[in-house]
Amino acid sequence: MRSVAIVVAAGKGKRAGGSVPKQFRPLLRKPVVAWALEAFEKSSIDEVILVVLAGWTKRVKAEIVERYGLGKVRSVVVGGRTRQESVIRGFRRIKDADCIVCIHDGARPFVSPDLIDRSVEAAMRFGASVVASPVKDTVKVTTDDGFVRWTPDRSYLWSAQTPQCFRGDIFRAAVEKAEREGILATDDSSLVERLGERIAIVPGTEENIKITTEFDFTIAKAIAKEVRAG
């Protein structure tokens, strides 16, 4: 089955600071999103749809897609007001939804081709998959006024990452249901959960971090040096 990736790079990244959105900031002289796109270039993914901020389309095509020879990037789409809207805009660019849709955050630069391929394979087998890592810290559920309500068993807790992959018909049904009900989810798999679909966990890697704050760039630079060296 054909596979199409939607790489979402349409956020403003205000928490990371800087004059340029975090996904376009240099990481060892290469834009953050370019690191991720190169992994998709080496994976089994057939096509990539890149979703960007308004006003960035031409610049991204010239300075990232063309400069780094990203031949799988067939479309550069302007995103929406929310991440969910940006994903939907990218999804609607897929001409034939009889495929596996693989959604990834452009601010996760260190996804590997192997992790992408394992995510796609799990979605082909089960219909839906999400990359995640076991929660290391004990998690507390609190009351509205800031007191501990209870402590869940962390052996059942996983921290969701991306890629998140779905059969096209499943994701279309999830999007349509969310739009009818006015749901704004925290991640793409949350929309699919609302259909009652099973979602397979694909164990992630510690390197697959999402850059959110300035401190994350410090960690990312260290990882980038190791990735480049090895």
Structure characterization notes:
With 230 residues, the chain is α/β, with parallel strands linked by helices. The chain is built from seven helices and eleven strands. It has helices at 32-42, 57-66, 83-91, 113-126, 168-181, 188-193, 214-229; strands at residues 3-9, 26-27, 30-31, 47-52, 73-78, 100-105, 128-134, 141-142, 148-150, 158-167, 200-203. The longest helix has 16 residues, at 214-229. It starts with a strand and ends with a helix. The model has no long low-confidence stretch (mean pLDDT 95).
Task: Report the C-alpha radius of gyration, rounded.
Answer: 17 Å
Number of helices: 7
Characterize the overall form: globular
The percent range for strand residues is 15-25%
Oligomer: single chain
Q: What's the β-strand tally? A: 11
Q: What's the average pLDDT?
A: 95
What is the count of structural domains?
Answer: 1
Low-confidence stretches: none
Order of helices and strands: EEEHEHEHEHEEEEHHEH
| Percent range of helical residues | 25-40%
CATH fold group: Spore Coat Polysaccharide Biosynthesis Protein SpsA, Chain A
Order of strands across the biggest sheet? Answer: 5-4-1-6-10-7-11
By CATH, the architecture is named: Alpha-Beta Complex
What's the CATH H-level homologous superfamily? Spore Coat Polysaccharide Biosynthesis Protein SpsA, Chain A
Please report the first level of CATH classification, the CATH class.
Answer: Alpha Beta
